[in-house]
């Protein structure tokens, strides 16, 4: 707080929140990296058949770098309340001068329109390349290049003029925002660069002037959407009827797919949130400062995400990217399977670090040893995500066999080491069961056997519980290591599917699995034994958690304790129940389904990679949110740190007060 106050004294600033302040900077830096790599790969790895499109792709990367630069320099905030929507300069070099800041805001908004124009030119090129190939030479002529550049810039100028001449803020507009800005940002609205629109309950002149600006930018947005959809549909129809070689048609489809995703990304995560932000005041909906955590952050994110579409969809670029950053053997399953564990892993690091920090700083003394058990949850989730990213796991079920394999990463090169790594990865699946069981035991002891609660502070019993959790993991590890290893017979059943779906030699891939029927008796008995053991552990954990949870719930209904203490126990049980439901619903159940369906002759093939594998990666990120959002002390601490303008401390919830009659909870 002292550092922030000193910073505010030196640089004029409207502090909205941690995410709003840092997300544009982080995404801007990431955009510099991703677009620089994108341009480098285009320069070095583009085929000559791409022609002038090579330079158009480069223009995409250069524009995204410019976009991110403007977004970081002109730090933009947004607010919608009552009859008025506005954007303003929250901090940075343009925050101290109202006139200069207003012009900077207009330039920032102009880049919004320029991004439309860049997309339109790309769609025009793809349309001409396929539907009017005799015109393709114009993209190499300076005259026509200048015309297209002027068209894009002209559309940006129209947007600039619409906000500059129509949406400037007078004293009347600022008066409608005076109370919200003082309340939410502790700022004087008359000293902040602002542009916006007032829709009702104001002077006719203000409504007509500002609404005219909104109408113009809305028309440009609707035109761009219509143009891209119409051009894309025309290209798609032409591809279905065009007489060309299979390879040429495939290249056109890939380029159209990449352009469609490049269009969808800004529309979905940037344009639509912004249109919603400037439209909702018309229907009297107050989003207040929420726009700063949706539209503003989304606008900052898309220049980083945008170049990834082409790099990952076009095989030449994707292979070059992976050779640069992943120089080991790899089975490329699909985009989502490859990146979802990495994205969820990074989110898990952030979410669980925040969770551990809040538990460490904001836990009441009445929680006793449970404070450290909560922290163990967060630390374990971080370890789980690390293993999930390092041991990149794929799954396949077809015919008589279910298998897991290492798809890429440092363990993909060696079948023996990769198999051991897979077994460790599976062991963490069981360890997550054990962690849940210990938490249920603590809640049971705290309520039903309070005289035993000191055991959770006794090193001897802590060691016993840790060994119990680890022992369950070791049993799981041994069951897959000694029972589910793959021999040549098992691999022979997977040889055709792996060649067909992944273009991979199954004999070079680290694999474990189970074969259920139509194979040698030895193989069926050995692998099925492993499945039976891990299924028994899974069923036992489910039964144990349900039984303990029901016992605690029943005890809470009859136990004599203060209303406050009972509410706290109910909150903690509810949080633990949700923490249990999340992995069971989105992780364990899909996995049990994946290893069971071959028994009934159902082929899910590579679908497990879109369900079970991604779900397993997601739950360590989602898991800590249950306690943060369900327990009032943690929830208030979270909002105070990251969304201070949303945080409205009011009357203290009774369940957050420690009763004099309660002991350790």
Automatic annotation (TrEMBL):
Membrane topology designation: Multi-pass membrane protein
Keywords: Cell membrane, Cell projection, Chemotaxis, Cilium, Glycoprotein, Membrane, Olfaction, Receptor, Sensory transduction, Transmembrane, Transmembrane helix
Listed GO CC annotations: ciliary membrane
Family indicated by similarity: Belongs to the nematode receptor-like protein str family.
Assembly description: Interacts with odr-4.
Protein name: Serpentine receptor class r-10
Localization (cell): Cell projection, Cilium membrane
Gene Ontology terms: biological process: chemotaxis; sensory perception of smell
InterPro entries per the UniProt record, alphabetical: 7TM_GPCR_serpentine_rcpt_Srj
Transmembrane keyword on record: yes
Cleaved signal peptide residues: none
Pfam short name (any one): 7TM_GPCR_Srj
Residue stretches spanning the membrane: 20-43, 55-80, 144-165, 212-236, 256-280, 292-314, 342-360, 372-397, 417-440, 461-482, 529-552, 572-597, 609-631
Stated role: An odorant receptor which affects chemotaxis to the volatile odorant diacetyl. Specifies AWA neuronal cell fate via the odr-7 pathway.
Major localization class: membrane
